[in-house]
């Protein structure tokens, strides 16, 4: 190669392509183990942990469940899950704002996924980075809370394009905020017309029965 020849290598594109292939392999691995893997994404404070406590409370009689708690640092959420009697492990990303497929594989191995039916990853709180990396999950679940505003599908398009299902949390606080549910549904549909939207309150439990029943319909065909 001549020294004067300009070469441009798109490292991000290469990294993402490699990760996508690895994620597909991981889905095959969990299929062989009869494990259903859910990736939960949201911004910090949207209510991921409280929502998961409510959902697992409705699902734990039907499935053996494990929780992966991903954070840059800290272990508060993992302690909450352990106190609730759930199998959980803490994942520290070392400053990274997402998990990729290989990190998922290591985490599933650490929690002993082969003995579980359903593993739920609470991804790092962020509406940008986690959406860029396929974790190898069977389902990407996105939570938005009412205080964040109904325009977020417009501002963070990739997150909602990747979502298989969207939960709108904190509807018990709807009267205190200028949030238009119909407009939010419209914006989600612009990004992803196939993603259902569930309205929930993790604090009161409203709407969680419907989400749990919907999840059963996704989990059972893979693990039974």
Describe the structure.
This protein is α/β, with parallel strands linked by helices and about 220 residues long. The protein has one domain (about 15-224): P-loop containing nucleotide triphosphate hydrolases (Rossmann fold, 3-Layer(aba) Sandwich). About 40% of the residues lie in helices and about 20% in strands. The protein has 9 helices and 7 strands. The chain has helices spanning about 10-30, 50-60, 75-85, 100-110, 130, 150-155, 155-160, 180-190, 210-224; strands at about 35-40, 65-70, 85-90, 120, 140-145, 165-170, 195-200. The chain has a 7-stranded parallel β-sheet, with helices on both faces. α3 (about 75-85) links the parallel β2 (about 65-70) and β3. α1 (about 10-30) packs parallel to α4 and α2 (about 50-60) crosses α9 (about 210-224). The longest helix has 22 residues, at about 10-30. It is globular. About 40% of the residues are buried. The mean pLDDT is about 95.
